């Protein structure tokens, strides 16, 4: 890894370590309800993966493990990985407190195969993950390495169109390229889970179009079952979204999708 990339990942890791305590006490993550049995998973991933009991599942970029542990509660044998030491520390604490049997490991997602030899029935990742990665070719290759023959990969992620906008100046304005290769740096107060927090988020990210995402998986040897796009999001993290009766959020004009999902198999 180049010195420049190492700097980007180190900065992001520091920011995510800072976010853990803030997120764990936020209404956004509602940790108390989760501890009492609330499932943190959303309808798309639940419908896509169905009954996971008895299946091995690798969760990439798991933050502090709520979704990993939700899959574990549903009977999957889970392993969660994340860059943040504090995130993984809290995930392990929750796993112990809730008497579950998930495993958690600190590593850069691109280095997963250096730390894990096991192959899984399911590899899963969701909501705000690939924008932290400069290179999806090595990401796709790693996913193929960690899937059993016949295993399923599923991701649900914010649509690349939403990352073309700058949201820091109040009114969203298109600032970044759909296929932009250059790194994007943002520095702002607060986090998506608590905009009133005084922490300073310093973040390096990359934009990835749908063509790049799909090709990185297919070139690694996965067969794409579907690519779906959705006009709604389970998270109210972009300005001026409207809450629907079903609890989902959408833009007032619905001019572009907010999410996409890919299901593939090896």
UniProtKB/TrEMBL annotation:
GO terms for biological process: methylation. Keywords: Methyltransferase, Transferase. Residues 59-154 form the Methyltransferase type domain. It comes from the Bacteria. GO terms for molecular function: S-adenosylmethionine-dependent methyltransferase activity. It holds the Pfam family Methyltransf_11. This is Methyltransferase domain-containing protein. It comes from Aquimarina amphilecti.
């Amino acid at each position: 890894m180049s010195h420049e990339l190492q700097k980007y990942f180190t900065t992001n890791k520091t920011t995510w370590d800072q976010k853990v305590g803030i997120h764990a006490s936020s209404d956004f993550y509602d940790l108390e309800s989760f501890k009492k049995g609330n499932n943190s998973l959303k309808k798309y991933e639940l419908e896509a993966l169905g009954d996971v009991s008895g299946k091995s599942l690798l969760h990439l970029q798991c933050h502090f493990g709520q979704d990993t542990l939700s899959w574990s509660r549903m009977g999957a044998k889970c392993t969660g990985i994340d860059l943040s030491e504090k995130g993984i520390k809290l995930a392990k604490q929750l796993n112990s407190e809730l008497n579950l049997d998930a495993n958690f490991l600190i590593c850069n997602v691109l280095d997963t195969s250096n730390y894990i030899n096991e192959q899984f029935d399911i590899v899963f990742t969701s909501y705000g993950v690939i924008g932290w990665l400069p290179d999806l070719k090595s990401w796709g290759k790693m996913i193929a390495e960690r899937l059993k023959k016949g295993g399923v990969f599923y991701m649900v992620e914010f649509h690349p169109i939403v990352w073309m906008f700058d949201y820091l100046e109040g009114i969203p304005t298109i600032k970044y390229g759909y296929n932009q290769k250059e790194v994007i740096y943002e520095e702002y107060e607060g986090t998506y889970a608590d905009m009133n927090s005084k922490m300073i988020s310093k973040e390096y990210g990359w934009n990835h179009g749908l063509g790049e995402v799909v090709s990185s998986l297919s070139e690694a040897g996965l067969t794409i079952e579907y690519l779906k796009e959705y006009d709604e999001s389970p998270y109210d993290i972009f300005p001026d979204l409207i809450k629907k009766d079903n609890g989902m959020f959408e833009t007032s004009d619905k001019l572009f999708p907010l999410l996409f999902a890919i299901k593939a198999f090896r």
